Amino acid sequence: MTRADFSPAEPPRAGAFIVTIYGDVVEPRGGVLWMGSLIAICAEAGLSESLVRTAVSRLVSAGQLDGARSGRRSYYRLTEAARGDFAAASDVIFAAPGQGPRGWIWVEDPAEPEAMAGHGMAEVAPGLWLGPDHGQDMAARAIMRSPVGTGDWSALAMRLWPLAEQAAAYGSVIRACAAGDPVPDDPARALIARLRLVHLFRLAVLRDPGLPPEALPDDWPGEAARRAFARAYLALSPGAEARISAEFHSRKGPFAAQSAASEARRSRLALWLGEDEGRTAEMVPGGGGAIG
């Protein structure tokens, strides 16, 4: 595959790719996208118009997208329920350094046990769940919290969470970002590359339970993966944002290349690279620099 494009052997799944587009491009710029723009961008990733229309219909049926017409044009935005999920995912994907868990949380007989894994929780014994304490408010019969540094958690963590699989997922991100190919000259290719990068990183980071560092192996690749993602995302952004302003349209007209929300994301990512490298990465033009 062409590493600079993060290209898989085959086009991405249409539904998953559309979710990535909304999360990375549309939500930070008002949340509404013209169907014609979506079809055009997906075509550049190898997805046909029929696949895109079918995927959008399924996302509407699943309660993730809402559609509206203005004249002959159709526009789609996330539903209110989906916007909450996307905001939570964005907080994880574009987190700044130092936003890790404050310790551990124990939950007994949760009201919705089927949702506990989504909070990074694991069932230690019937009805008793353990997970990282991110300040979440859970309806439960009893809650106990343990601060960071209160014991040796590594053996228990290896037994309760698939840490080897998670490390492998982060390794995939690092390898994809470390090939050293030049950033694409073409803004269209830069945008597709950034969308594929976000999709790859999202698959890895959103399944990470986010355990306290005391429970992780010494060679845990999570921070290295975040730095690799930040470096590549910032290098691709000038070209990608030029393409966004040229191709994406809402009811009000063309998207802005940047918004307050997109600039905040870039600023948080730059913090992973240190002041000098972060500033340099944000200034890389669409045709220069290297990924990795």
Question: Briefly, what is this?
Answer:
The chain has ten helices and nine strands.
Please state roughly what percent of the residues sit in beta strands, choosing from under 5%, 5-15%, 15-25%, 25-35%, 35-45% or over 45%: 5-15%
Largest sheet: 4 strands, antiparallel
**Would you tell me the structural class of the helices and strands?**
alpha+beta
Determine the mean pLDDT.
86
Q: Which descriptor suits the 3D outline?
A: globular
Question: How many DSSP E strands?
Answer: 9
**Helix coverage percent:** 40-55%
Strand order across the largest sheet: 5-6-4-7
- Measured distance between first and last alpha carbons: 16 Å
Q: Nearest-angstrom radius of gyration?
A: 20 Å
Helix run count: 10
Q: H/E series, N to C?
A: HEHHEEHEEEEHHHHEEHH
Poorly predicted ranges (pLDDT <50, ≥5 residues)? 284-292
Explain this structure to me?
Residues 284-292 have low confidence and may be disordered. The longest helix is centred in the last third of the chain and has 26 residues, at 222-247. The chain starts with 13 loop residues before the first helix and ends in a 9-residue tail after the last helix. By secondary structure, the chain is of the alpha+beta class. It has a domain at 103-147. The chain has helices at 14-26, 35-44, 49-61, 80-93, 154-160, 163-177, 187-205, 222-247, 260-270, 275-283; strands at 32-34, 65-70, 73-78, 103-108, 122-125, 128-132, 142-147, 249-250, 253-254.
